[in-house]
Specification:
Elements lengths: L4 H17 L1 H4 L6 E2 L2 H23 L4 H19 L2 E2 L22 H14 L2
Antiparallel strand pairs: 1-2
Helix pairs in contact: 3-4
């Protein structure tokens, strides 16, 4: 069912308001953590190996322990695949950040960028 004109205008207004006021929330980084493609591939391989072991353990009753190990391998593969890792260059407890140069002003980088953006939109 299509939206009425009033509903469409309201939705457009809400989207503009969100993008204007909450742009930092929409594009907020996830604390320097990202999914690693390598971990996804290793997790998928571990999941498939675990599935094979689980099937062998179910098919051959005397190898029940192989099925249990297969299930644990599947669980470990899923956890490995979906666990985010720290991005390169981010400080970790064992590798602290390098001391940065002292800032030239008390404003943060994002505050200065927001001020520049506001000035540009206002035509100054």
């Amino acid at each position: 069912m299509p939206l009425s004109e009033q509903e469409q205008r309201l939705l457009d207004e809400m989207e503009r308001h969100l993008m204007r006021n909450d742009a930092d929330v929409v594009s907020a980084p996830s604390d320097g953590r990202t999914l690693s493609y390598r971990n996804i591939v290793y997790g998928a391989i571990l999941l498939l190996v675990g599935l094979g072991a689980l099937l062998v353990g179910v098919a051959v009753p005397s190898l029940l322990i192989v099925g249990i190990i297969g299930f644990l391998a599947m669980l470990g593969g899923v956890i490995l695949a979906v666990t985010p890792t720290r991005a390169l260059g981010k400080p970790t407890p064992d590798r602290p950040a390098k001391p940065a140069a002292a800032p030239h002003s008390s404003e943060s980088f994002m505050d200065r960028m927001n001020d520049r953006w506001d000035k540009r939109r206002d035509g100054n």
